[in-house]
Automatic annotation (TrEMBL):
Keyword Phosphoprotein: no
Protein name: Methyltransferase
Keywords (A to Z) from UniProt: Methyltransferase, Transferase
Pfam short name (any one): MTTB
BP GO terms, sorted: methanogenesis; methylation
Domain of life: Bacteria
Top-level EC class as recorded in UniProt: transferase
EC number: 2.1.1.-
Length: 517
């Protein structure tokens, strides 16, 4: 009884201390910084094997071809030397022509944020983490799985702004289906521009949506369409409709974005065994063919337009046909995708993916399986880095925070290890001698506050202390932390005149959206 009473009092003191802290004090996240990997990229296949994939890809484009479903796109391709036959959507590309145009793409470029410290570099060994994008559902412990909506969309925007380890938006974190489909992009871009100052995304679903996004970006930045082309601040994902097809809305959006100097990430959706061959080598050959064809097309639209080589090859569950992510096959494909991007001198995109239906151990181990090749393969844009669940169908608030812990750990891992006279600590070892300890040495006292990575979510207390604090597992702690982050959120400052101009633009566009569904 006495012991139980002591535990109750200690538990109450713990709760009292937590209650007295401000939300910011309870959030021990890493500082905002740009990340670069000091390690050489890990090659999975030999140069000869990489060349074999490259050669197979060019054969696919010249012998089989790829369907470009948009008439204007085919006209541009034909004007630049592609083989386009009347009455057919099939386009065949000569290997030399493909490589000529791919070579026009920049090996490194910058996307500009709302303030200079938010500017991001893509290429070389730069690493940029994105929040989850394009989920139709969202979830948390209290509300469960639910349709995407604007309120949750905005909360993910606030969390992404607040999370120092996240550099940018990869798309709409969750689709706000409670807004009209022909104008919801206006509301979403308004949220991007007012709730955050980080680089954001425009969907390439026809010309009008990215055109509106460019106009709103110009208003927010005080730019013109000409100047924003030289200082791009947005990106868009172009997914091919694998196998070997690019649809009309994607192509129209690509042409609008590339023509105005905004970045395009070309990402084939090559699921091995379903939309690509059951062998990973064959799937990579198809991925590479589709990526090269569309990347070459961006340079026909505007030479020098920023573009990223996207890899998303994974496998399916051959028993059900469901996509599988965070698999050994996915990890291998991600590493080879990085090798291919480097071969062509292009920035690279990969993904933190998992197939779990809950923010549980499976979600964590599959994410780690995805993140290691992402980091070791010099991925420059890490899509869906925080919040992805259920194969991308659900944006999970708890998984968002769990991923922040994983990303912070990876960021700490790529910090160079200091080897110096001071870090080798010979004098400290001499002072302590055999059988002592280092807790109270001057060497430790000078460094203990910053010596080791401090976790955001992990609980390193012993069992008794953890039990007294409520026995919360990682998912429950993540739930509390995401709510604390929302409580601590601070919106970036925006000029009231700019805010009014954005609202006026939206109101005018709502009168006649000009978007056919």
């Amino acid at each position: 009884m006495a012991e139980a009473g002591r535990r109750t009092r200690r538990r109450e003191r713990t709760r009292d201390r937590a209650a007295s802290e401000s939300p910011k004090q309870r959030i021990k996240q890493s500082v905002w910084r740009h990340l670069r990997s000091p390690y050489p990229p890990l090659p999975l296949v030999s140069e000869d094997e990489l060349e074999a994939i490259h050669t197979a890809s060019l054969r696919i484009l010249s012998e089989i071809g790829i369907d470009f479903l948009d008439d204007t796109a085919r006209t541009i391709l034909k004007q630049h030397g592609a083989e386009v036959r009347g009455g057919s959507e099939r386009v065949r590309l000569d290997p030399e022509m493909v490589l000529e145009y791919v070579a026009k793409a920049p090996s490194e470029f910058t996307l500009h944020g709302g303030r200079p410290e938010r500017d991001l570099t893509f290429g070389s060994n730069h690493v940029n983490f994105c929040c989850i994008a394009s989920a139709p559902f969202c979830s948390d412990l209290e509300g469960g799985r639910r349709d995407g909506n604007y309120a949750d969309f905005n909360n993910f925007c606030r969390l992404t702004q607040s999370a120092n380890i996240l550099h940018m938006f990869g798309g709409y974190p969750v689709e706000p289906i409670d807004l009209p489909p022909d104008t919801r992009h206006l509301d979403c871009h308004y949220s991007f521009l007012t709730l955050s100052d980080k680089v954001h995304h425009a969907y390439s679903l026809g010309r009008q949506r990215p055109s509106d996004a460019i106009d709103m970006l110009c208003i927010a930045r005080g730019e013109t369409r000409d100047s924003i082309a030289e200082r791009p601040g947005m990106h868009s994902i172009i997914n091919t409709s694998s196998p070997l097809r690019v649809d009309i809305p994607m192509l129209q959006g690509l042409m609008e974005m590339s023509a105005h100097g905004q970045a395009i990430c070309v990402t084939p959706f090559t699921l091995s065994g379903a939309m690509s061959p059951v062998t990973i080598a064959g799937a990579l050959a198809q991925q590479n063919a589709e990526a090269l064809a569309v990347i070459a097309f961006t340079q026909m639209v505007r030479a020098g337009a920023p573009v990223i080589y996207g890899g998303f090859t994974s496998n399916v569950d051959m028993r059900s046909g469901a996509p599988a992510f965070g698999t050994p096959e996915y990890a291998k494909a991600a590493l080879v995708g990085g090798q291919l991007a480097r071969k062509y001198g292009l920035p690279y995109r990969s993904t933190n993916a998992n197939a779990s239906n809950a923010p549980d151990a499976q979600a964590a181990w599959e994410s780690m399986m995805s993140l290691w090749p992402v980091i070791l393969g010099h991925t420059n844009m890490v899509m869906h880095a925080a919040g992805w669940l259920e194969g991308g169908l659900t944006a999970s608030f708890e998984k968002f925070v769990i991923d922040l812990e994983l990303l912070q750990g990876m960021a700490s891992f790529i910090e160079p290890l200091e080897i110096s006279e001071a870090s080798l600590a010979i004098d400290a070892i001499k002072d302590v001698g055999p059988g002592g300890h280092f807790f109270g040495t001057p060497h430790t006292l000078e460094r203990y506050e910053t010596a080791f990575y401090e976790p955001l979510l992990s609980d390193w207390r012993n069992f008794e202390s953890w039990e007294e604090a409520g026995s919360l597992d990682a998912t429950a702690r993540a739930n509390r932390l995401y709510r604390a982050m929302l409580d601590a959120y601070e919106a970036p400052k925006i000029d009231p005149a700019i805010d009014e101009e954005l609202k006026a633009y939206m109101a005018k566009r709502r009168e006649n959206p000009g978007i056919q569904q």
